[in-house]
Amino acid sequence: HPSEPFKRAQLFWLLRNPIYAGLIAHKDKLYPGQHSRLIEEPLWDAVQQQLDANRQGVQEGPTQCRVSPLAGRVFAPDGEPLTATHATKGKVRYRYYVSRHLAGPLTARISDPMELRIPAMELESALIAALADRIADPFRLIQESRFDDLLSAVDAKLLARANEVSSMLKAKRSEGQAMLRAAVVEAVIHPDSVLLRIRPLALLAMLGIALPVSEPAAARLHSITVACRVQRSGKAVRFITYDGRPAAPSPAPDSSALQAIARGRAWWAALCAEPDLKVITLAQREAVDPGLMGRILKLAFLDPRIVNALVQGAAPASLNLRKLTRDDIITPRWSDQREALGMVPQG
Question: pTM of the entire structure?
Answer without folding.
Answer: 0.56
